Amino acid sequence: MQLKQIYELLAMVLKVDPQLIMSFPVTEPLEKLGMDSLGMIRFILLLEETFNIAFLNSDLILHNFSTLEKLFQTLDKYEIEGKK
Q: How many Cα atoms occupy the beta-carbon half-sphere of 12 within 13 Å?
């Protein structure tokens, strides 16, 4: 998965400049950028469509997407599984 694409999708959902996302600390809650539960659902759906993945129900908890760091950890799991 391309990092730039992820930032662009997130910026689109949050309606902010992608540069803001790129400079945002990876351990800070995305709520500080205006992410809410509906935005998170839109973002997850965009990720699934864009990268042709389907998140397991067990991964669809807000905690896994609450910071950029946790988001990337969750996405890495699917990237690795997709290579097998």
A: 12
- What are 27's two structure tokens? 């351990």
Confidence (pTM): 0.85
Determine the Cα–Cα distance for residues 16 and 74; give it in Å rounded to an integer: 23
Q: pLDDT per residue over 15-48, tens digit each? A: 999 999 999 999 999 999 999 999 999 999 999 9
Nearest to 1 by CA among 39, 46, 42: 46
